[in-house]
């Protein structure tokens, strides 16, 4: 059976950068280590005045198409995942297609276009849609373009303000992929939740404590469901485990939970028994509360063990680098975690061919998905072609006052005139509104 997966990836980061420990923390009167050690964040990306989810998505897609030598005729599907959309009817994919048609011969007239919404998991759902479309044989030999693009802003003063970020990930989904093949097995955990939502509002309403609990619960359910079709998982089976990463500190909790689950009734639990005992079993306790307390105590000890720290450093830590420098990209966050891991592998000179990733996606509201990916023989060429470090280094640093201005620029309820902080070059830019209040774009050489 023909393999299907991610053939190539590109990113486009917002062109402004805010230093959290040195610029944000002093104004907030907070310890810089709250961000660097607590949240695991150092800097956040923000869009300039002429940037938004369309320009970032279109610019990432153009980079990908240029590098792969593609034309619109090669693309049969454009799916955009976002939770930052500004139109309740017209999908962002049509805007992005319109941008790309300004610079390529031909058009996307015969490409299926859509927009996915399920908080941060929508990017992975769009991958699934493209995968299924190709596997069903409906693609006519064409590839799918999947774009995850978001500007993650919170109300000023909100506890989530430090996790903000802006950027886009473009992925080419095709047969015989050059980067990773997607597994046929998937696991899901989903429930009607109100942990994070935007009911007719731009900025989210968040129950922080509940959001963490829901994230972990749905991830556990998805892992159990994945194992029901793919078989038991084990920490040694996967070279990296990229998680949805709203901020790296949240992944620490998910990773510990996953490690405990995967090591239950394994050689690793046997090895740890002399040091911290065996994992509590529910049947050994009279009440659920007693069992929960015992589990918490076990996990507190587990995270201090050499086995866990070594595994975390090898399998999880490399997935967090990009996120720690750009903040939360919502629908793109798990996909930059994958990219971060593969860049780390390339830097270390690892042979990743045939190695497996276990990808854990999540969207508030709430749903988690677990699937595996197999790294392809040509992975290194693809990863070395992505200019992540150059993009991040080229960002323009802003002061706290500048940050407040740019936040107001992208606040849909405010109309303010601010000069751009950077000069656009060879990219799509937002130019204003049309006669029906549609957003308009052009390509600047």
Automatic annotation (TrEMBL):
The keyword Metal-binding does not apply. The keyword Transferase applies. It is an enzyme of class 2 (transferase). Keywords: Acyltransferase, Isoprene biosynthesis, Transferase. Pfam families: HMG_CoA_synt_C, HMG_CoA_synt_N. Residues 195-421 form the Hydroxymethylglutaryl-coenzyme A synthase C-terminal domain. Its EC number is 2.3.3.10. Residues 3-175 form the Hydroxymethylglutaryl-coenzyme A synthase N-terminal domain. InterPro entries: HMG-CoA_Synthase-like, HMG_CoA_synt_C_dom, HMG_CoA_synth_N, Thiolase-like. PANTHER family: 3-HYDROXY-3-METHYLGLUTARYL COENZYME A SYNTHASE (PTHR43323), HYDROXYMETHYLGLUTARYL-COA SYNTHASE (PTHR43323:SF2). This is Hydroxymethylglutaryl-CoA synthase.
């Amino acid at each position: 059976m023909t393999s299907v997966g991610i053939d190539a990836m590109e990113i486009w980061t917002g062109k402004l950068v805010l230093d959290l420990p040195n610029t944000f923390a002093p104004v907030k009167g907070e310890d810089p280590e709250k961000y660097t050690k607590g949240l695991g964040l150092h800097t956040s990306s923000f869009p300039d005045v002429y940037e938004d989810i369309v320009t970032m998505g279109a610019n990432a897609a153009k980079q990908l198409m240029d590098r792969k030598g593609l034309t619109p005729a090669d693309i049969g599907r454009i799916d955009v995942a976002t939770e930052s959309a500004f139109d309740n009817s017209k999908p962002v994919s049509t805007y992005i297609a319109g941008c790309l048609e300004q610079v390529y011969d031909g058009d996307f007239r015969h490409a299926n276009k859509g927009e996915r919404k399920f908080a941060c998991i929508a990017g992975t759902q769009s991958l699934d849609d493209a995968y299924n479309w190709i596997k069903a044989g409906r693609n006519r030999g064409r590839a799918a373009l999947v774009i995850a693009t978001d500007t993650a802003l919170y109300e000023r003063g909100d506890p989530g303000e430090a996790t903000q970020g802006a950027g886009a990930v473009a992925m080419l989904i095709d047969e015989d992929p050059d980067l990773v093949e997607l597994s046929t097995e998937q696991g899901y955990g989903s429930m009607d939740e109100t942990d994070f939502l935007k009911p007719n509002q731009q900025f989210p309403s968040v129950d922080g404590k509940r959001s963490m609990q829901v994230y972990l619960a749905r991830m556990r359910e998805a892992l159990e469901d994945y194992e029901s079709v793919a078989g038991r998982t084990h920490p040694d089976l996967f070279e990296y485990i990229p998680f949805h990463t709203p901020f790296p500190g949240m992944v620490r909790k998910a990773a510990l939970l996953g490690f405990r689950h995967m090591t239950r009734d394994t050689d690793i639990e046997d090895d740890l028994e002399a040091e911290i005992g065996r994992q509590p079993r529910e049947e050994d306790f009279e009440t659920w509360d007693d069992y929960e307390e015992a589990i918490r105590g076990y996990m507190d000890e587990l995270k201090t063990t050499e086995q866990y720290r070594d595994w975390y450093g090898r399998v999880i830590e490399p997935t967090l680098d990009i996120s720690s420098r750009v903040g939360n990209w919502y629908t793109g966050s798990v996909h930059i975690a994958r990219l971060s891991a593969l860049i780390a592998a390339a830097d270390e000179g690892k042979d990743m061919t045939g190695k497996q990733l276990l990808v854990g996606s999540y969207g508030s509201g709430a749903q988690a998905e677990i699937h595996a990916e197999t790294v392809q023989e040509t992975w290194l060429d693809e990863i070395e072609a992505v200019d992540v470090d150059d993009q991040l280094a080229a960002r323009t640093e802003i002061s706290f006052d500048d940050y407040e201005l740019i936040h107001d620029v992208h606040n849909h309820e405010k109309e303010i005139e601010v000069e751009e902080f950077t000069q656009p070059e060879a990219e799509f830019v937002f130019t204003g509104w049309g006669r029906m209040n549609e957003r308009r774009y052009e390509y600047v050489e």
